[in-house]
Structure formats: C-alpha cells, structure tokens
Design goal:
single chain, alpha+beta, SH3 type barrels, five-stranded antiparallel sheet, 51% helix, steroid metabolism
Length: 535
C-alpha cells in the first residue's frame, strides 16, 4: 500500500479544480483505493483532490522584500547605470527627495496591512428557482445595493508570513475585489449612522422580500380554495355523466360529510405509520448542513414500513376486512384528513413561535398568515421524530396505494366483475411503481426543496396528508363507476411508454440527488461551473 504524504487534520494548500489557484484547506480523510484526499476549504466546500494538487504550507512561504546579497555582475551594472545617469534640471536635489527604498518599504507595509484580513463567504448554491443562499437555514437578506447580508461572513486573520500568499492567490479577481471594497465601505457608513437607521435598513430589506404564491392573498386563496376544489372533483366523479355541462354537481348535506368513525380511522392510520417509522430498522443518514453546521440524522425505513403495511392489510383482508368501506366513505375520509391537517398546521405554527431564530424556515416572512401557510419552523421535531420528514412520504404515499387497492375491490363489486379491469390494473401498477420507487430511494428526499428550504406548515401538511392520497387516487376512483375497456395492444403500448418515462424520471432524479448531495463532483468533471463566491 503506498504511503500517505499528508495526515488527517493537517492544514495545507489545495488547488481549486480547473484553475492554478491554491487555497488553504484541511485534510479530512484519504481513500487508499483511489488515492484521493478529501479536503475542506475555509468556506465549507469539500472536494476530493489528488496528491499532486496538494502542497504543504511551507511551499508558499513569503519571499523577503529585500535581498542581502546580489551577484557581482548585477552590482557592477547598477553602479555603471548610476554613474552614467544625468540629473535633469527640474529634479530636486538629492537631499530633498525621500529614498526610493524607504518609499517602497512603506508601500509594501501598507499592502500587507490591507491583505492581513481576508473575508470568505459560504458557497451559494442555486440549483432551484428559489434562491437558497444558506444550507437548510435562514434566507439571504438583500440590501439596497443587492449585496448579500454580511452576517454570513467569516473573517480569517492571516499571519504576516502568509500575507504574500493570500495576495498572490486571492479568492476573488482584483477588479471584483476592488468593487466589493467600495460597496463594503458604503455599507459600513450606512450602518454606523445610528440605531434608528439600522432598524429602518432591516425593515426595508424585510419588506422587499418577495413572497411566493402571491403573498398573503395567494396563501389565503389556496388554503380556502384547495379543499373546495378537492370536494368539487370528487363530487363530479360520482355523477353518472361527469361533464362541465352538468356543473355544478349536487351538493350533499353538510352533516353527512362528517363521520367520527372515519376520523378515528384516519387518526389510527397516521399513528400506525408513525409507529412503523420509529422502529429501529434501516440505516441512519445525515441531512444537509444547517446554518450552525449541524447535520440532522434521519432513519431510512420507509420501504420497511411499506412492507409491514402490506402485510397488515393482507392479513386484515384474509380475516374479512371489507375495503369497500373506503369507497363508500371516501368524502368523509377526505374531510377527516383535511381537519387533521389543519389541526396539525395550528400545532406546528404555535410551537414555531418559541423556536430559536436559526431553526426557522428561510421561506418564512414574519407575517402570521403567510407563515402559517408556508411553514414557520424548518425542521419541527418531537425528540428524534422529524414531523416534516415523516409526513413527506409515509401516510400520504402509502395511503395512496391502499386507496387504489380499495378502489380495485370496489370496481369488482360495483360492476360485478370476477377480475378487475385492465385499466384499473394499469393504474394500480404504474402508481404502485412510483410509490415503491420513492420509498426505495427515500434518501433522495433529503435534498429536495421541501426539506432544505420550505418550513412545515399548511402547504406541506395539506399536500402530504390530503392532496397526495385523495387526488392522486383520482383515476382509480373514477374507474369504479366509469369503466374504460383497454385492449391488450393498447395496454402494451401504454406500458412501453410508461417504462420510457420511468427511465427518464429515475435517471434525472438520481442526477439531481447526486448534485444536491455533493455538487463538487459535478464541478470537477466539468458538468457545471463552481458557484460564485459572493461577498
């Protein structure tokens, strides 16, 4: 086995991929098989470098400004030049001029003072449409000059010995550095005018923040409109001839929509899935870094929970459970899910009021209505149980499969079939593949916007617990009373098209997840450019 040149924890200089610049890095680990070092830059970036791209700090020692000796030929040349040099009439006497060596020394000293302090800013990744300028943390506050807030800056004081290296291998181009220095000076003048101007400055930055979904009016419209839209679709499907010509559908009595037994069944389903999530099976992985550098741990046992749920449902069917109840009380179950999601959203918002500022969502705005909708706290947890991560995949996705299965049995009962229709089989099979794929690749959800950016509020609670199981099962619910015969050639063509789409879906999501976990790999192979280092 070849020996290592650098030890773990050693501070060295590492070359930035694709350039000739070397920055100070820390050795984290060494892969003996690939002979690559995992290093960490001062801004938190982790890369894998070859040994040839790493040099010790002693290789970048500062050169002395003056030399104690010179070659004889150089001394002779300087003397001959000084003797042949004539003084111009406008030049002042020699005694009145400052010696050149002292002037140069003063300039060098001034330059050293300027570069003794180097400012580094965490990398800014923007893989999505929304700006995520902090890993899983607070939003980027932009000021009037459109420069990110300086609270995220870290200052590293360099020794005078390494100031030459920091000047030669600066993290920003010279022109950009000069612009940022001018902006920093203007910014400091604005902030140092007094506490009143500082408060006005922060309020202006908060008010200028763009809110998603149309802000507060859009959030109110969504929270009121989505439940009504859900019931409208379900009532349309219950008609014999669902059409816009038969709009609006007949509305049922309001007292008939609520059933305590249906609400109890939904609550029981939720807590059974929570119990499966707490089982000590499956590996534990770390999420993306938080603002304070911590990484939350998540247990990946969603696929095991799906297998256990399948076994429990299969045993219940064997003992005489009638899943036709799900179809007959579908509206009541949907209302129960809506009520449960609203109660959960209220609990999440109230507990978020006592959460520390660094645990709040980057999407929160300070407005009560908007934060109730978008989510105020980023990672609400009860002990080690992460509520948002649990609701993201478990109750909704697995419940979607159970509802589809119930619709399959309901179709056979309503239409008097001995076997389900081919259309119902295709719907159940394709959607089952989607759910199993999501649970098998459960770790990929940790790099999605829902986990790293959005808080847990009404938007995600309603979407995970109501929209996914009751809207995504819409096709199967429709086929119960509206049979659609599909021929075998058409079924084969549909299956081939589905497989092509699934391959594209799986490959693109695998690449997206790989980029979210370690974007440095894409920089090194040239698939994308490194993110800008914003001041």
């Amino acid at each position: 086995m070849p020996s290592r040149k650098f030890a773990d924890g050693e501070v060295v200089r590492g070359r930035w991929p694709g350039s000739s610049l070397y920055y100070e890095v820390e050795i984290l680990s060494h892969n003996s098989s690939s002979q690559l070092y995992t290093v960490k830059y001062k801004d938190g970036t982790e890369l894998e470098l070859k040994e040839s791209d790493i040099k010790p700090l002693t290789s970048f020692r500062q050169r002395k400004s003056g030399s104690t000796s010179s070659s004889p030929s150089r001394r002779r040349g300087s003397r001959s030049r000084s003797r042949s040099r004539s003084r111009s009439p406008g030049r002042p006497p020699k005694s009145s001029r400052r010696p050149a060596s002292a002037s140069q020394q003063a300039d060098i000293t001034e330059m050293r003072k300027e570069v003794l302090e180097v400012k580094l800013t965490p990398l800014v990744l923007q893989p999505f449409g929304n700006s995520i300028n902090r890993y899983n943390g607070e939003p980027e506050h932009r000021e009037r000059n459109d420069i990110p807030h300086k609270n995220t800056q870290e200052k590293f004081h360099l020794s005078e010995e390494s100031s030459y290296t920091s000047t030669q291998y600066g993290l920003r181009p010279r022109r950009e550095e000069m612009k940022l220095k001018e902006l920093d000076s203007k910014e400091e003048k604005t902030i140092t005018k007094g506490p009143t101007s500082s408060r006005t400055f922060e309020m202006t930055a908060t008010q200028k923040k763009d809110l998603e979904f149309g802000g507060v009016p859009g959030a109110c419209l969504i929270m009121l409109g989505l439940p009504a839209f859900l019931f409208l679709l379900l009532l349309m499907c219950r008609q014999k001839e669902p059409s816009l010509l038969n709009f609006p559908p007949p509305l049922p009595a309001l007292y008939g929509l609520w059933e305590t037994r249906a609400f109890g069944a939904y609550v029981l389903w939720f807590f059974v899935q929570a119990l499966f999530a707490l089982l000590p099976i499956g590996k534990v992985v770390e999420g993306t870094p938080l603002t304070d550098g911590r990484r939350l741990k998540y247990r990946l046992n969603g696929f095991y929970a799906f297998v256990l749920t399948s076994a429990v449902v299969g045993a219940a069917l064997f003992w005489g459970l009638d899943l036709y109840y799900v179809y007959r009380h579908f509206l009541q179950l949907a209302l129960a899910a809506i009520v449960f999601s609203v109660v959960l959203s209220v609990y999440l918002y109230v507990r978020a009021l006592r959460a520390p500022p660094d645990e709040l969502s980057p999407a929160s705005s300070g407005n009560a209505i908007y934060d109730f909708f978008i989510g105020h706290e980023l990672n609400p947890r009860i002990g080690a149980f992460d509520l948002k991560y649990f609701c993201e995949l478990r109750p909704g996705l697995i419940g979607w499969v159970v509802i589809n299965l119930a619709m399959l049995f309901a179709e056979m009962k309503v239409q008097g079939r001995a076997t389900p229709s081919l259309a119902m089989i295709l719907v159940n099979s394709f959607q089952l593949l989607y759910v199993v794929d999501a649970l098998w690749n459960e770790e990929a959800v940790l790099t999605t916007m829902d986990i790293i950016h959005d808080g847990f509020g009404f938007m995600l609670a309603f979407g995970d617990l109501v929209w996914v199981p009751f809207i995504y099962s819409f096709q199967a619910f429709y086929l119960v009373h509206h049979p659609n015969e599909v021929s075998w050639p058409a079924a084969c063509l549909i299956t081939a098209l589905k497989l092509c789409g699934y391959i594209i879906f799986r490959c693109s999501n695998t690449q997206k997840n790989a980029f979210g976990k370690k974007p440095s790999c894409f920089w090194m192979v040239g698939l994308c450019s490194p993110p800008q280092l914003l001041g």
